[in-house]
Amino acid sequence: MGSHRNGGRGGDQSGTSNGDAGGAPVDKGVDFANYFCTYAFLYHQKEMLSDRVRMDAYYNAVFKNKHHFHGQAVLDVGAGSGILAIWSAQAGARKVYAVEATSMAEHARAVVKANNLQDVVEVIEGSMEDVVLPEKVDVIISEWMGYFLLRESMFDSVICARDRWLKPTGVMYPSHATMWVAPIRTGLGDQKNNDYDSSMDDWERFTDETKNYYGVDMSVLTKPFSQEQKKYYLQTSLWNNLHPHQVIGTAASIKEIDCLTASVSDILEVNSNFSSTVTLQNTRLCGYGGWFDVQFRGRKEDPAQEEVELTTAPSVDDSTHWGQQVFLLNPPARITEGDKLNGSFSMKRSKENHRLMEVEFSCEIRQQSGELVPRLVALCSSCSPSFSITRLPLRLLVPKMHRSSSTARASEEFLVNFSPASLSLASTPLLKTAAASEDLPVYSNGNSDHATKKEIGLLHNPPGRENVIHLIPVVLFLCGFILWISSHPPKM
Q1: What is the pLDDT of residues 435-466, one digit of tens each?
Q2: Are 95 and 74 in contact (CB under 8 A)?
Q3: Inter-axis angle of helices 222-234 and 188-214, to 10 degrees?
Q4: Which residues pair with 272 in a beta bridge?
Q5: Burial degree of 323 (CB within 10 A; 0-12, 13-18, 19+)
Q6: How many CA atoms lie within 13 A of 291 on its CB side?
Q7: Is 309 a catalytic residue?
Q8: Which residue has the higher pLDDT, 371 or 38?
Q9: What superfamily in CATH does domain 4-143 come from?
């Protein structure tokens, strides 16, 4: 079938660096269990294949630029179900090497054969760092982008493939990438504060019951439990499909990548100063949203005949499974049209897991009057790109999120610490729900996820309230029945 295994998989050690300064090697067995294995399921592949924006961009990039593929050797890095390899062959490629690290390679072989392309497409199961090809290639195509572009660190494998196997005249698909941030308004912060309060109320009941029933006082653990829950609920970045109306200022580019020349050291850390202008009157700065674009331009000496762009920016009709990352500010800040937001952004890989990121995000608000609001910082550590707006010791461990319908990539975590520098969370009253809802419209469209549609509703209708209402008639009936029985005792 023109397919084979190439390279090992499972408990051996790889020389791949984890991205830290020390460059400690990554245990490939652990990396496979934590990352690659999630891509071995068809349901996961289906979610990505159902992303119309993603699919259209790659399809158009290949078939509107057939001159890059016709008669050429192509390498598909992280082939998954094999669709990019199949399109490359259909566009006229002489030979396509489809490298996939998981057992999804077996399904890719079946799809290739079902489309009568087994003589052109060779599926290779193995890691890109270990694979040995029989020739150099003219094109490398890959869908390597993670949440907020760099989460998952799969671009490392693409760089490895490029340095080892791309001809000097070869092209990269995509060729360029850009990371963006913009100020946003959202009700998610209010929801997360409510979740935190509920968690602490539950803890108080737990400690009371443990002491009363079992004679053990657990209240000494209240402070560490509170810190743990703050990290979980209040300092974690979130996956979300934002509506464009939730973006309240100009977007700023924080990183541009040329896929033909970028090195791993170029993406180990992202550091950027940026500015944004508020475009909405009298609103709340609830945090920042982050997303990315990739472009298919070919190379300077061999440009694309028709450039194609894939964007994950907030959209009414064209949302993607990547969505956007939301970095919450707690508490929000009042801003208005014309205010300037000057910020700095820093993101680096987690020492615990090289596929996750830690982010620090700082920002100051210069009002139209010229008054400067104290600098805000959000510190994020562990798990994924985190976020910051003033230096308070708040960090949050982020939950792994399985994405339903529109959350198909490997589970993600983000840590965020977003608080005014001069204020403490304990002493600062949070904005009430009624006030918060004034500038938080709800939008519903066919592509947005349920969390986005219910964003405002959840603030006013806590889960379970509807069920309680439905029980009222039953309770009234039982009360009436008891009263009737008590007034008509049975005759002996």
Answers
A1: 333 344 433 344 434 333 333 333 333 444 44
A2: yes
A3: 160
A4: 345
A5: buried
A6: 24
A7: no
A8: 371
A9: Vaccinia Virus protein VP39 (3.40.50.150)
CB 85 within 8 A of CB 164: no
Q: How far is CA 169 from CA 68, 73, 128, 172, 290, in A?
A: 11, 12, 21, 10, 34
With b for 16 or more beta-carbon neighbours within 10 A and e for fewer, the 100-138 pattern comes to: bbbebbebbbbbbeeeebbebbbbbbbbbbbbebeeebb
Q: Of 100, 122, 125, 143, which is the active-site residue? A: 143
* CA 316 from centre of chain: 19
143 has catalytic annotation: yes
Domain residue limits, the chain? 4-143, 179-185+234-460
Q: Could you say which architecture CATH assigns to the domain 179-185+234-460?
A: Distorted Sandwich (2.70)
DSSP string, 339-389: -EEEEEEEEEE-SS-TTSEEEEEEEEEE-TTS-EEEEEEEE--SSS--EEB
Report helix angle 104-114 to 83-90, nearest 10.
30
Q: What six digits make up the tokens of 487?
A: 């007034």
Q: pLDDT, tens digit, for every residue of 158-202?
A: 999 999 999 999 999 999 999 999 999 999 989 999 999 999 999
CB 195 within 8 A of CB 232: no
Span 70-100, pLDDT tens digits? 999 999 999 999 999 999 999 999 999 999 9
Q: Of the listed 152, 360, 364, 455, which one is catalytic?
A: 152
pTM (2 d.p.): 0.73
Q: In the chain, what's the furthest Cα-to-Cα distance?
A: 104
CA-based R_g, the chain, Å: 26
